[in-house]
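Hey, I was hoping to borrow your eyes for a little while. I'm sending you its amino acid sequence along with the backbone structure tokens. Take your time with it, there's no hurry, and the full record follows here.
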Amino acid sequence: MTLADAAGRLSDELKKRHPQIPWDQVRGFRNVATHAYESLHLKQIGAIIDQDLPPISKVVEQELAERDEKVRGDTHGPDQLRNDAGREGGERTASREHAPGEEMER
């Protein structure tokens, strides 16, 4: 899945939280790259990479961090993760998925 395809699947709520991103242009770039690629110039692609991708990357990181905080909830806050990181191998057991019926390591 491309970035443009993914942008087309984002909720309106998420897009409204980040109005600084031109979501329609991100989504529309796929059509240009797919169907009119002969009219693209390397300077245009370079400008997109240098100027447009960093803000999108920042939004993605922010959204993922917020999602991770919600998934962890209060029982797996920063103190719990620090404690888990000190376990053998530095594995954060609080974030490990478990099979049904499998007990969490303590």
